Amino acid sequence: MKTHALQALGGVVGAAIVVLLGWVGWIWHESRLPDTYNVMDYGSHDYGGGDVPASGHHAGISVADLRGPRAGAADAKFTLTARTESIRLASGRQVEALTFDGISPGPELRVQQGDLVEVTLLNDDIPQGVTIHWHGVDVPNAEDGVAGVTQNAVPPGQRYVYRFRAEQVGTFWYHSHQVSSREVRRGLFGAFVIEPTRSTYGLDLALAAHTFDGVATLNANDGFQSRRVSPGTRVRLRLLNTDGTPRRFTVQGTRFLVLALDGTDLNEPSPIENETLEVAGGGRVDIAFTVPRTPIWISIAETEVGLALNAGGLTRPLADSSDEFDPAGYGKPAETPLGASSRFDRRFELTIGHRPGFLDGRPGLQWTINGGIFPHVPVFVVEEGDLVHVTIANDTDAVHPMHLHGHHVRVLSRDGVPVSGSPWWADTLNVEAGERYEVAFRADNPGIWMDHCHNLRHAADGLTMHVMYAGVATPFKIGDAANNEPE
Ligand code: C2O
Ligand code: CU
């Protein structure tokens, strides 16, 4: 009797193990990505409660045809050559970097609003290939520089020409979107500034914070760079964070205005002081002040890295314990065509989670979007002209700077509290652990657009999805065999 019972139990346990292994094996198998695949074949189409676009309705627009103006003389023309180069930080430290034109950050590109911009990318020697994405510039889809979605990565010895009209004004940046988690970290990026036709600043600087080999830098300087500027000069500083995690900046010695976030001017900013500015990974904050007779320090918080104006040999005072700048209540409200009371055509949920599972066959703790592990993530399908509402919730204990390509979103609320100051437009929104944002955008730029975390390591680990316009298809493919690896 006893042995019978044991045998039976053994049989049940054995069968359970077989079922469990089979189930895990199936999940593993399901998670694997083919050698090449089209982004359109993955994910589950989510229509946000709106109309399901009739198939065939203006179908057959290829991403490859959604180009900027191909004809006409460019107003601003650049060539950027990507190559491996060792660069030297101010302290003398050498970094084996990937560079545009031999430097990192690459050349600061400045154009004027309305310019037809033409940039030729040459890849000298970067074996895995290169592209250029114009982060925050809402370019036509084929100029967006995403390997395997809007173009093929440019192999060594080849080139690609980007042409687009600079319609916005503000602070943006460019970076490779091929193996971006490695290429951007190693230096393939630069500042891209679109100036208004008349600028009133005596000094206008873009300052990119970046970590090279674990060392914090500002424009590749790992110490304080000092400048003399005549008192009375109007200064505009464009603070960029090209890392994946948030950076905080302090401003000591002057009151200042926060002029713009993510390349979009704020309405009626008022002077503040002793407020720390947090810049999302990939985000930008523009500030302005008039130079006083006394010194000013702009520093990366908790580092000895920054910019000192008229400081001579003076050492920086200890930072005042300061408040965190909050864009949600800064500046004055203004009318915009898109707000909380708009009639939305689609409402999407984008909930970020973290759980054990397989990503492309690898076991581990994985990021999830609406519960699914990449590629089992949603695709937000929209139609041109739609007003789109997205609720972004972060159910993890990490911060995720969420970046939508090709559009700016208006931030409507955070944790249920409506934005009360200036209209706040973002392209890279720092979503802290446990936070929940409501944002809105107008679908006015047809294409297939990445929507991902700009902690590019997270993106490579599956925190990536797409916003897809109905009827648009891409001929490009992602995967090893295609040599396109956007993240
Ligand atoms: Cu800064 Cu998907 O990009
Ligand atoms: Cu993230």
Outline of the structure:
This protein has three helices and 35 strands. It has about 475 residues and is mainly beta.
Structure commentary:
The protein has 487 residues and is mostly beta strands. Helix content is 8%, strand content 40%. The strands form seven sheets. Strands 23, 24, 26, 28, 29, 30 and 32 form a seven-stranded mixed β-sheet that branches. Strands 1-25-34-33-27-31 form a six-stranded mixed β-sheet. A six-stranded mixed β-sheet has the order 12-11-14-19-16-17, with no helix packed on it. Strand 16 and strand 17 (264-265) form a beta hairpin. The longest helix has 30 residues, at 2-31. The radius of gyration is 24 Å and the shape is globular. The model has no long low-confidence stretch (mean pLDDT 95). It binds CU-O-CU linkage and copper (II) ion. Residues 133, 135, 175, 177, 282, 403, 405, 450, 452, 454 line the site of CU-O-CU linkage.
Strand residue percentage: 35-45%
Q: Ranges with pLDDT <50 over ≥5 residues?
A: none
Pairing-aware structural class of the strands and helices? mainly beta
Principal-axis shape: globular
Q: Report the C-alpha radius of gyration, rounded.
A: 24 Å
N→C terminal distance: 61 Å
What's the layout of helices and strands?
Layout: H1 2-31, E1 44-46, E2 61-62, E3 76-88, E4 94-100, E5 109-112, E6 116-123, E7 133-135, E8 159-165, E9 170-175, H2 180-183, E10 189-195, E11 203-212, E12 215-218, E13 224-227, E14 234-241, E15 247-252, E16 257-261, E17 264-265, E18 275-279, E19 284-290, E20 296-300, E21 306-309, E22 323-324, E23 346-359, E24 362-369, E25 378-382, E26 387-394, E27 400-404, E28 409-414, E29 417-418, E30 425-426, E31 428-431, E32 436-442, E33 448-453, H3 456-460, E34 464-469, E35 472-473
Parallel strand pairs: 1-25, 2-35, 3-6, 5-10, 11-14, 13-21, 18-22, 23-26, 25-34
Antiparallel strand pairs: 3-4, 6-8, 7-9, 9-10, 11-12, 14-19, 15-18, 15-20, 16-17, 16-19, 20-21, 23-24, 26-32, 27-31, 27-33, 28-29, 28-30, 28-32, 33-34
Bound molecules: CU-O-CU linkage (C2O) and copper (II) ion.
CU-O-CU linkage binds next to strand 7 and strand 33.
